[in-house]
Write a structure and sequence with these properties.
By secondary structure, the protein is mostly helical. It has helices at 11-15, 27-31, 34-69, 101-105, 129-136, 144-150, 163-166, 197-209, 213-228; strands at residues 76-82, 88-94, 154-156, 182-184. The protein has one domain. A hairpin with a 5-residue loop joins strand 1 (76-82) and strand 2. Helix 3 runs antiparallel to helix 5.
Length: 234
């Protein structure tokens, strides 16, 4: 499968394959990015609202398909996630797994295909047929636009971890939560599930350090392209 990259010749992304990069974020740097944060909030409100309108027919179509495959159970579900500065919130998603997915997780942990503090499995038996499709196209993430409008998330930012994942974070790992979590980010457009946890953290740190209006727009447009031509999502 062809793997998309954020910038094909980006030396930072290439360096992830060679060695672990340890970078500490300068707190003063974040204070100097006030204009960028203000811009992000405007884009989040406008983009989130427009996105919800556009996504509604898509989500209705998925809901019909889900009810045909699995009549019982919710279409939308929420999970507790860890956001900016360790604050928890309820994140919304379209359900892509069977109803007892959480109960089956323990027996699958040994088959984790991603190194580090997160669980990913390419052929996860808990994922439904409809679930495989909506994950591939990132449709299951669309309800998070409501989290964006509410101000709990941003369109662009590090992905919010589960509390059990956050408990294993080192002080270095926690740097990725110095900003609001996002629906998409540098990790998602740089290989997604082909990138291991330590590399994901390094990409998130790089994103925070180089955060700018131009980079925000680049990641958003790159994400739209990936939704049209999916890469390593599962």
């Amino acid at each position: 499968m062809e793997k998309e990259s954020y910038v094909a010749d980006d030396p930072f992304v290439k360096s992830l394959k060679k060695k672990e990069t340890i970078v500490l974020i300068n707190q003063e740097l974040l204070k100097r990015k006030r204009a960028t944060f203000a811009f992000k909030r405007i884009v989040d409100l406008v983009g989130g609202a427009i996105g919800l309108v556009v996504a509604t027919p898509i989500m209705l179509g998925v809901a019909i398909a889900m009810k045909k495959e699995e009549p019982n159970g919710p279409i939308i579900f929420s999970q507790t996630r860890v956001g900016k500065n360790g604050k928890t919130f309820r994140m919304y998603k379209i359900r892509s797994m069977c109803l007892d997915a959480e109960n089956k997780l323990e027996e699958l942990l040994a088959k984790n295909e991603v190194q580090g503090a997160m669980f990913k499995m390419k052929d996860d038996p808990r994922v439904t047929k409809v679930g495989k499709f909506i994950r591939k196209a990132s449709i299951d993430e669309l309800p998070q636009l409501w989290n964006v409008v509410k101000g709990e998330m941003s369109l662009v930012g590090p992905r919010p971890p589960l509390p059990r994942e956050f408990k294993t974070y080192s002080s270095y790992d926690k740097q990725r939560l110095l900003v609001k979590p996002g629906c998409t980010g540098l990790w998602q457009v740089s290989g997604r599930n082909d990138v291991h946890f330590k590399d994901m953290v390094a990409l998130d740190v790089e994103y925070i350090q180089t955060m700018s209006i131009a980079n925000e727009l680049k990641i958003i447009f790159k994400t739209i392209w990936i939704m049209i031509r999916p890469n390593g999502a599962y």
